[in-house]
Amino acid sequence: MSTKKLCIVGGILLVFQIVAFLVGGLIAPAPTTAVPYMSVKCVDVRKNHHKTRWLVPWGPNKCDKIRDIEEAIPREIEANDIVFSVHIPLPSMEMSPWFQFMLFILQLDIAFKLNNQIRENAEVSMDVSLGYRDDMFSEWTEMAHERVPRKLKCTFTSPKVGHLYC
User: Fold this and answer.
1) What distances in angstroms separate CA 7 from CA 10, 20, 62, 75, 120, one per listed residue?
2) Where a domain ends, among 91, 118, 137?
3) Which helix (H) or strand (E) holds 83?
4) Can you give the residue range of the structural domain that contains 57?
5) 47-56: long-range contacts, CB 8 A cutoff, minimum separation 24
6) Cβ-based neighbours of 62, under 8 Å, separated by 6 or more
7) Element (H or E) spanning 145, and its range?
8) What whole-number distance in Å separates Cα of residue 37 and Cα of residue 35?
9) Are 107 and 145 within one domain?
10) Sign (positive/negative) of CA torsion 158, 162, 165, 166?
């Protein structure tokens, strides 16, 4: 191959590479996005929490909800009866089977109270389940389940009631 033909082939390949780079950078969707979800506090009133039951925050079979933990006290709802439920995706969106991974970061907002102080190295135990269903009417299938203990790291510089320190 002559030098002239080699330069033409190399130039064409370079143009294709530049076009492919521009298509990937300008047209293709972002590889990862962050979508914040706020959990709904559902009440699981069953006495034995051993059988799997999915508490859906919305829809025809939605769960019994409470707005905040203060509402649970007069109703005599224990901490183990409160389930933080998140439904992904939001009702107006659709989930693609092409998702490669999902990363969930759980942020607990624990307000300081004088009559309920948090001791040093307090531990929160979470019973986490991940389930899916293929359409709105099929049964839920459990994909993963884990019991996870986590230590709270709270720094109280000057404790004030209602402030978030953890």
Assistant:
1) 5, 20, 66, 80, 71
2) 91
3) strand 82-85
4) 37-91
5) 49/80, 49/127, 52/129, 52/142, 54/131, 54/140, 55/83, 55/85, 56/85, 56/87
6) 56
7) strand 141-151
8) 6
9) yes
10) positive
Q: Say whether 59 sits in a helix, a strand or coil.
A: coil
Q: What amino acid occupies position 109?
A: D
Whether residue 20 is contained in a domain is answered as: no
Average pLDDT (16-29) is 87
pLDDT band at 15 (very low <50, low <70, confident <90, very high): very high
How many angstroms from the chain centroid is the CA of residue 32? 14
Tokens of 78: 């224990």
Two tokens, residue 115? 């009559």
Q: How many CB atoms lie within 10 A of CB 27?
A: 7
Provide the token pair at 108.
Answer: 């607990």
pLDDT tens for 84-122 read 888 888 777 777 777 777 888 888 777 777 776 777 788
CA torsion, points 118, 122, 123, 124, in degrees to nearest 10?
A: 10
